[in-house]
Write the structure tokens for this entry.
Amino acid sequence: MNPLELEQRADRLLLTLRKKPGVYFKISVLERALKLDKLGVVEALAEIKKWGYKIRTRPDAVAFIKAPDSLTPTEIGYRLKTGTIGRTIVSYRSVKSTNDLAAELAQSSAGEGTVVTAEEQTKGRGRLGRKWHSPPGTGIYASIVLKPGFKPENAPGLSVMTAVALADAVKKFCGGDVRIKWPNDVLINGKKTAGILTELTADKDKIDYVIIGVGINVNQGTGNFHEELKNIATSLRRVNRRKVNRVKLFKTFLVNFENEYKNYTRHQLKKAHGRIRKYSSLIGHEIKIQLGRRLIEGKVVDIDATGRLILECEGKKVPVIAGEVTVVKE
Ligand code: BTN
């Protein structure tokens, strides 16, 4: 039997078994339901086990017990409640950067909502040319292809919008204090847990595609963080003191992302504005911000409905579109 045929059989068997987790299905019943002989069912079962699924067997029956926490199209796509985001999922074990792969796909055939994931990145990239440490099997490293109809000047808010979707998802899975450090770092108890790298390809008045890259520290233990990151970064596992299911967290994020994106295309940040303010780690704090070559200092008094940081400097209100923030006074 060719490998593709085996994979398809295993997929069909898996879908049947997981409809009733823990319930034993007679092999003879599965043979009839899937139009296979006994050997066909046994081979498909062996394949499913190889993928990491926990299956319990009796001499004449089998039961689905547990799915692996792997970022595969099968797991992410299983009962995923989205319309476009994640309808196509491409997953790799190891890549240089999911953003690069997503961009390659976007240039060829990939449509809006295509998701690229990897278990490991060997050259994960952060903002401002930084590295994004991406050890295997512990974090979520993913990129989403967008092909929006709006003009390039409306793209900057996409990062802030993504941060809100991410913060809402992280909050659901973690007991700590979840905040957004403007524009798009997600913090738990003051330490960075997730980051967003938005890359845009456009000409003067038309967006070609946008890649939204998301990195989430999920199950990294203390030992997984480089020395220089230990005090400024954390993971959901470190905060909760137990592992978090990456697949469930990622699916929650995709559903949130789709809702936020729909709202964004119609109303920009208007619907997210309340949560942008509520999650802000900066409002009320004195900060320094690097704006190109200028360093300005002031108190953050608000984030406006277009996602700009409003700084009070020497009695004047200064709106800031983008920049690298350092907190001066907590
Ligand atoms: C940052 O906070 O500096 C942004 C980090 C973004 C990391 C993600 S991981 C998936 C995607 N691929 C990359 O190379 N980077 C982004």
The radius of gyration is 22 Å. The chain has a mean pLDDT of 95. The chain has three domains: 3-66, 73-278, 282-329.
